[in-house]
Amino acid sequence: MLVLDGADAVIDALAGDLVALARHAAGRATALVTSSRRPATTADATLVLGGLSPEDGAALFLRAAGGGDERAARDVVTALDGHPLALLLAGAQASALGVAALVARLPSLLDAAEAPLVDVHARHRSLRAALGLSWEALSPAEQRALAALATFAGAFDAAAAEAVIASPDALDLLARLVRASWIGATEGGDARRLRIPAFARHFAAEAAPGAHAAAVPRYRRWVAAAAEAAWRGAAEGDVLRWCDAVAALEHDL
Asked: Under a CB-based contact definition with an 8 Å cutoff, are residues 70 and 60 in contact?
C-alpha cells in the first residue's frame, strides 16, 4: 500500500498517476491519499470525512485539555463545527486557560500561538498555518468567492451564494469550494444548506479584505430580501413557510 498524507496542493495532478498505477498493477497495489481537496477523477473511492459528533468531539477536546466540563466542551465542538484539528488546538489552549475561559476566547483561536504538540507536523500546530496551506491551493477567483461567502454568519443555499458572489461562474466556484472542503454541505428541508466554519470565515475575510468588503452590500441586500419574503409568507398565512424562513435566517438577521 502506498500512503500519501496531505496531498492538497498536488491532488489533481496526482490523481491521474494514481489511476494509471492502479490499472497497471491490476488490483495488486492500493494507494491511500489524504487531502482536504477531493480528487478530480471518477476512478477512485473517496471517503468524505465530516466534523466529529458532539460526543466524539467533546472527548477529543477534553483529552487535549486534560479534562474539564463536558457541557462546556460540547459548546466548543459546536462553535468549531466538530473540526478535529481545531478541537485539538483549542484543547491545547484550554489546558492552560481552562475550558470556561477558552469558550469566551474562541474568536481569537485563529491567532493563538503554536500548540506544543511535538508529534504533530508544524503546519498543523496552528489553525492559521493549516488554513494558509489550503488557501494557497485555491485560485484567485476561488479566494474571492470564499471571502464573499464569509459574510454569511449562518447557513445558506446555492441561490444565496450566487447572489453574494455575483459572478457568472458563481455556482462553479461554489462547487469547487465545497470540493476543497472549505464549505460543508448538509441536507435541510427541501434544499441543501451550506456552511463555512466560523474560524474559516474569519480567515477568509482577513486574507482577502477587499473581496469581503465588496460583498457586504450584496449580502445585506440578500438578507433584506429574504426577510421580506419571510414576512410576506407570514402575511399570507403560511405559518410553516414563515417559521422555516426565519429559522434559516437565524444567524444572519
From this structure: no
Q: Is the distance from CB of 121 to CB of 94 less than 8 angstroms?
A: no
Instruction: Answer yes or no: are the C-beta atoms of 118 and 101 closer than 8 Å.
Output: no
Place of cell 422555516: 244
The secondary element (H helix, E strand) that includes residue 194 is: strand 191-195
Record the cell numbers describing residue 71, joined without a space. Answer: 457541557
- Residue 132 corresponds to which amino acid? G
Q: Delimit the domains of the chain by residue range.
A: 1-47, 54-132, 138-248
- Domain 138-248 in CATH 3.90.226.10? The answer is no
Helices 140-149 and 170-179 cross at an angle (nearest 10°) of 90
Q: Read off the pLDDT of residues 186-229 as tens digits, 9 standing for 90 and up.
A: 765 556 789 898 889 999 999 999 999 999 999 999 988 888 87
Burial (CB count within 10 angstroms: exposed 0-12, middle 13-18, buried 19+), residue 3 = exposed
Distance CA 247, CA 155 (A): 10
Q: How many angstroms separate the CA atoms of 92 and 86, rounded?
A: 10
Helix/strand/coil for 33: strand
Environment class of 244 (CB within 10 Å of its CB; exposed 0-12, middle 13-18, buried 19+):
middle
Query: Which amino acid makes up residue 146?
Result: L
Phi and psi at residue 187, in whole multiples of 5°?
Answer: -85, 130
Encode pLDDT of 16-45 as tens digits: 666 666 556 555 667 777 767 676 665 566
Cross-strand pairs, 32: 3
Q: What is the pTM of this model?
A: 0.74
